[in-house]
Amino acid sequence: MRTDQRPGVVRMAGRALVAVLLLAFALFFVLPMVWLLLASTKSPADLIHANPLSPGSIGTLVTNWQHLMSFQDGAVLTWMTNSVVYSALSVALTLLVGIPAGYAMALMRFGGRRLLLIVTLVVMLMPATALVLPIFLELSYLGLVNKTASVVLPMAFFPFGVYLTYIYFSTSVPGDLLDAARLDGCGETATFFRVALPLAKPVVALVAFFSFVNNWNNFFLPYVMLPNSDNYPMQVGLTQMLAATPTFNPVVGANAEVQPPELVLATLVSIAPVLLVFLFSQRFLVAGLTAGATKG
Amino acid sequence: MRSRSWRPAAGHVFVSGYVVLLVAFGIAPTVYALNLAFTDGEGRFAGIGNFLRTAQDYRFVAAVGHVATYLVLWLVTLTVLVLLLALVVHRLASRWSRAALRFVYYVPGALAGASSVLLWLFMLDPSVSPVDGLVRSLWGDTFVQVIAPGHLPWIFTIIAFWTGAGGWITVMYGALNSIPYTVIEAARVDGAGPVKTALRVQLPMLRKWIVYMLILSLAAGTQLFVEPQLVSQAGFGVVGTDYSLNQLAYLYAFDQNDFNGSAAIAIDLLIVALCCAGLFVARGGLFDAD
After folding, report:
1. Does B5 reach chain A within 8 Å, measured CB to CB?
2. A chain contacts of residue B9, beta-carbon cutoff 8 Å
3. Architecture of domain B61-282
4. Do A133 and B209 touch (CB under 8 A)?
5. CA separation, residue A295 to residues A29, B2, B158 (Å)
6. A66, A184, B68, B268: most buried by Cβ count inside 10 Å?
7. Are A157 and B25 inside 8 Å of each other by CB?
């Protein structure tokens, strides 16, 4: 009970400790992001010699941008376009097959339903990278690697999205409502499109969001499937830039194609779409980690 | 709710697209990789030959060691710090600082894969890092010294923690919120301070969530690929391209053209992932299938 003798002091010390802990971690999480923003506005010399947390200038940012855009005749633009195409196509496909599947698993009766549900749950909890090499081996046997489909189709397979949809329909949409629609003469298809789908907007947005973030950030799959630089998404393109940066590859020396601030800017460009989506919808992501979980 | 028959039903049409993808990119690649793993280059049955051969590769044991060291560091750090931060943030009086801190901890989650690794290569390069003093005192004065193989488990832990911890802090925070106030109040009346309440009441009630976090992180951690791949690319050969198991499987397929060996390692990893997921689903707990 020694703490009771000097409660004021102990309490103050405890509070100070807590404050230091929280601020130290806040700094740890924020500092790299701040540095990234500032470093993209600096010249290569300033990046090394100026204070790491001082800003550069808008002019330098523009110069860095121009250099970045001229890298390998506009490769960055190609990679960003590829990323958009791959992500958009696979999100569309994920929604197209995933939403009806989750709906059916929640509200319809058919043979194999429970098995499908369990398989979905197991695959959902496995890291997607575990299947990348097996998928590569399979597609390489079928002669399908190095095609847009070889990244889009595997990315469209998104059991987590199906599970989210399943949870949404089994908890948030009353089955009676759909029975009523059927009694009114709606067929299964009409019930889905006219009644269920309009109710499912929140979960469609949620699945689209997760699928987009996952696909955009996917590295291993396109890295394995697409050997040509022209087909790289931005995440894989970054490795090409890394190889052309003198700091991380002295062999390129003075003729380096990419100066470090340009690599910083490329990193910033590569995360911009996801970062924007993130800032506007952070609740979504948390909802995803806990979605469908029963109360802890 | 169990269906009695497999007669064609409207439900089958609704799930058909998804089932096609599940078969094509979940089941078929697994079966094909199994087939490769148990045959030799000429397609003859090889028993567990490929598994033995790859496991006896000197790089395999080294890679298992690397991944295991990283996993121990990563899981311990993740558990201790995530729980500590969630508990502390949860106790803050100001609603605003609770929300602001969770947000700040969480934002780096937007960076994954190559982007976050690149950012951390800069953070770890003493010539440009904003925390160069810290980096120099811990790991050395040059980038090459910093990324010495012995430092890598720590470095990968930092990167993984930076991108992933915020999400888990928010999850644990949510779980703490779901503990009824009366329970905490009862503990307080019984004379438990914040530390005792955390250890005796709150943490035991978070058990399921902690297991969930550990299993998902363990399964994901065994897959280590992009981090060592980029570090080795940036590291002038200080770190080989065979640091992790997935890298080794990649080398077997792409450098040695040995798809059977590659499949064997991929199956090793797949089994770990499958066991983690299967164990979690079978034990019930957080997720319900019906």
Report:
1. yes
2. 108-111
3. Orthogonal Bundle (1.10)
4. no
5. 29, 25, 31
6. B268
7. yes
The Cα A115–Cα B93 span in angstroms is 47
Domain A70-290, CATH 1.10.3720.10 — does that match? yes
The tens place of each residue's pLDDT in chain A, 296 residues long, gives: 444 455 688 888 888 999 999 999 999 999 999 999 999 999 999 998 999 989 989 999 999 999 999 998 899 999 999 999 999 999 999 999 999 999 999 988 899 999 999 999 888 888 888 899 999 999 999 999 999 999 999 999 999 999 989 988 988 777 788 888 888 888 888 889 888 888 888 889 889 988 998 999 999 999 999 999 999 999 999 998 988 888 787 666 656 688 899 999 999 999 999 888 877 776 665 665 566 554 32
Most B CBs within 10 Å: which of A90, A122, A162, A197, as the mutation test of the B interface? Answer: A122
State how far Cα A114 lies from the chain centre: 29
Quick one: tokens of A144? 């399908």
CA distance A278 to A273: 9
Q: d(Cα B137, Cα B139) in Å, to the nearest integer?
A: 6
Residues in contact with A141: Cβ distance below 8 Å, sequence separation at least 6, in sequence order = B32
